[in-house]
Amino acid sequence: MNFKIAVIQFPAANCDLDAIHVLNDVINVKADLVWHNHFKESKYDGVILPGGFAFGDYLRAGIIAAHSPAIDEAKIMLKDGRPVIGICNGFQILTEAQFLPGALLRNESLKFVCKWVNLKVENNKTACTNKMNEGDVLAIPIAHGEGRYYTDNLEELEKNNQIVFRYSTEQGDLTKNANPNGSLDNIAGVCNLEQNCIGLMPHPERASEAILSPKRTEHGKLFFESIVEFITRRLS
Amino acid sequence: MTKVNVNGKEVDVEMINEEYEKVKDLLNRDPNITELGMFDVMWSEHCSYKSSRPKLKLFEDAEENYDYVLAGPGQDAGVIDIGDGYALAFRIESHNHPSAIEPYHGAATGIGGIIRDILCMGVRPIALLDPLRFGRLKDNSHSQWLFKYVVKGIADYGNCTGIPTIGGEVEFDDSFENNCLVNVACIGLGTIDDFKHAPSRAYNPGDYVILMGGSTGRDGIHGVTFASRTLTEMSEADRPAVQIGDPFTKKMIIESTLEAIKTGYVRGLKDLGGGGLTCATSELTGDGNTGADVDLRKVFTREPGMNSYEIMLSESQERMAFIVKPEGLGTVLDVFKKYEMAFAVIGRTNDSKVLKVFDNENLVVNIPSKALSESPTFRREEKRPDYLDHLLSQQTPILTLGLDEIIYKLIASENICSKEWVYRQYDHEVGVRSVVKCGEGDSGVLRIIGTDKFISASVGVNSKHCFLDPYQGAKGGLVEVCGNVIANGAKPMAMVNCCNFGNPEIPESFWYFSKAVDGMNDFCRKLRIPIVGGNVSFYNEDEVTKTAIKATPEIMIVGIIKGKENIITLPFKNSGDDIFLIGETKAELGGSEYHSVIYDIEGGTPPAVNEDKIEITWDFLFELYNRNLVNANHDVNKGGLVITIAEMCLKNKLGVILDFSDCYEKELRDDEFLFSESVGRFIIETNPKDRDLIFDLAAKFKINIKRIGILSENPEITISGLKSKQLKLDIDKMKQLYDSTIPSLMET
Question: What pTM was estimated for this model as a whole?
């Protein structure tokens, strides 16, 4: 099937090439790196806002990027059901742009933290989890200083099935120790009501090849394969 | 300080009278104030290496002697050809003085500087490593403050630029209390074509000179002269000499520079670091055998009213100078515009071999391009310190603690315990190259995407050993750092160093430098490791406490692993496997952690290096690797044998049953055998079915190898065969001690 995904290059996005690598070289789909001011939604079937420090995270993580013209383009994609995915800094941008509910606050430790964590899949109907099972536990690393998820509307999110991933133990238990940043209710990723827009703090592009994973898993691949599956279904 | 007369006014300069006379000779007249400032900066110790250059001549021939060395000492970074069309650039340098005064920005701009050095070789920076040294943390809030903010400075800067920090080391010792050491290393990867495209020279007359990046402000003026002095109580007043970093702009500089190089129109490239615009313009034209006319009023400044002196000497961060072919000017400027980077075409090169700087119509600088690099050198006196005889003869006190208590104390000590508190704050995985991550091996291992080759890199040296014997200590540092990459399966390819020493005008301090350089040179020639770059930081002394730092010739090694099956990691893996000790243990407790932690003494006999034995040990290990016989490997390092074994147990919580009967010479005491830091030893894990083969190979290589134990499921280390009673150590307790030391000191 002929389709194309855009990875947006915001100034000082720094996981942009990593996402391109996984899409092009690991799961063999067409993906372009597109400078944020040059992005035109009409050419693409899905968009990924990668991790990094867009605009240096100056002022507040994601806030300046949320006002990029790329976000206006992405909004069109959001409305017509194409996948709009934010990883780490991309998640921060999506909450600042109000594509997704809630906010990402400074980690409870007040320090940047880079480590492998376990993620429990809470909703496998979304554009990036449809190849997973509910309750699956994925090994995927985090690397962020502002990843503590917070919302005033936890009940509503739960009711609408908008919580996609939670930090858990390897066995899938949602303990305090398994929560690396103090996120509300161990939340690691959420989606919009339509489930085509997902944001998560962990980095699936760093967990898509066995050689990079401490336990030689490739759980991140499922994330990107789900996006492909979602686009394929949408186009057929 | 010297007082000189400029246009009837008396001004203070750092240079001595003899140097001032030479400036006048080179110009055939008196310099004006701007020119004088430029000479003063470029002839500072930091820029000119005037004390170290005579000695460093020893390192100069790497490019001649090794066909895979593409750039050697004297360039912004060392570069080697690693096959498949790839070039690897790497360098290490110091940012000690700024970090001691302002740890956060000092460390951050150190990272910024080393990234630019790699970038101006035309390749993408892909990894950082940071060796750090502070005073002891316990009960010392100043050391804790420096440590906390240096780590945060590195993390905030490195993480934002998207370059993973994959390794480093931290040592705590009283001698670094007020003059901490912040060394920064960077690795860059690109094609050989990328490297060849962008030399740091302006060799073609008629090219444009472009300044790109951050604006030029009044910060950092005379930063290098500040770094060429001893820190004093007055140094607090030098805080304006510390630059402020901007990692966001740096990231944009990286991307726009790499894209500009790809256009093919960039003919030369130089970063603005120490010495700012003065250093960049004079080195580009001087090394390129050209001249240039530069218009200062084109330089975009941070504030109005900056005079020519300030603009030429500013060390504001995040700036690059490009030499661009005339026909490509528009194309290159379009790249900068895409990234919304500020730029200015500030001049053009010509064939005059003279650097002329104009302030509007006024000619404010008119000096031969090469004159600024023709600083005088000084032969410094060297003298072995008198106190060494006393230190070297120090004896280990009588044991008052049980060996098990000592081991628990050692594993919890600041220099041995886990540094996870540090590396969790660094993004060590961005770039999807990190294969052996922090805490999993003795070195950091990166893949080269699209090949089956891997880069292994490590930094280190033992300052306590160097303090007692800089010649053997420098060699021991090389054995250790090469051992780190070898333990992960890599062949050491090349070395760069960062020499941190005291005041070179003091003969005892210069002696340390001189002996350490001899040690590095002798070892590297013997083991055929090219030295492809170095940096010297003198004046690391603290006038407040009248102490010099312990000599620290920091060493960085890069190695290559071919084939992912040949990557070896540190943790023990399978219960039932054999444990072997390779190499000889001698009564070398001088400068050991055992002496320092248990008795608070620094003396004794430090480890000495036998290059012949080191060489066969390495050959033997590669023979084992070729036959896929090694399941885990760790070089024996700080704390000695049992600590090394314990570190291998912690990750997978495996235990070991050790039997040291017949493992060591009768004249050695138990504590000497257990805690000696003799260099060149390794602990390996192997499958018992290969035991005979390993002994056969060891006999063939004439290598000293002992089977010392077997791995078990039971999480404890039991030790028999000692002269004293059997020992039993609990892995959970060790892990708890190992993990909690730094958090408990830093998080309260």
Answer: 0.95
Residues of chain B neighbouring A205 (CB-CB closer than 8 A): 432
Q: Which of A128, A144, A191, A203 is catalytic?
A: A203
- In 3D, which of B265, B266, B274, B248 has the Cα closest to residue B341? B248
With beta carbons less than 8 A apart as the criterion, state whether B698 and B621 touch.
no
Interface membership of B668 toward A (CB under 8 Å) = no
What is the Cα–Cα distance from B457 to B492, expressed in whole angstroms? 9
Is the ipTM of this structure higher than 0.90? yes
Q: Is B168 touching A (CB cutoff 8 A)? A: no
**Is the CB of A30 inside 8 Å of chain B's CB atoms?**
no
| pLDDT at residue B592 is higher than 60 | yes
Distances (CA, A) of A86 to A196, A208, A223, B617: 11, 17, 12, 50
> A173: which 2 tokens?
């238990």
Considering CB atoms only, which of B156, B339, B427 is closest to A11? B339
Q: How many other CB atoms are found less than 10 A from the CB of residue B209?
A: 26
Q: Which residues on chain B are in Cβ contact (under 8 Å) with A214?
A: 437, 440
Nearest to B426 among A114, A205, A206 (CB): A114
Q: Which helix (H) or strand (E) holds B454?
A: strand B453-460
CA distances from B81 to B63, B67, B111, B160, B196 (A): 11, 9, 24, 29, 12
Q: What is the pLDDT of residue B220?
A: 66
* Contacts (Cβ under 8 Å, ≥6 apart) of B304: none
Class of the domain covering A4-235: alpha beta
**In this complex, do A114 and B429 lie within 8 Å of one another by their Cβ atoms?**
yes
By annotation, the residues of B acting in catalysis are: 46, 95
Estimate the crossing angle of helix B611-626 against helix B470-487, to 10 degrees: 0
Q: What is the pLDDT of residue B60?
A: 86
Structure tokens at B643: 């600590």
Question: Is the Cβ of A165 closer than 8 Å to some Cβ of chain B?
Answer: no
pLDDT tens, position by position, A99-140 = 999 999 999 999 999 999 999 999 999 999 999 999 999 999
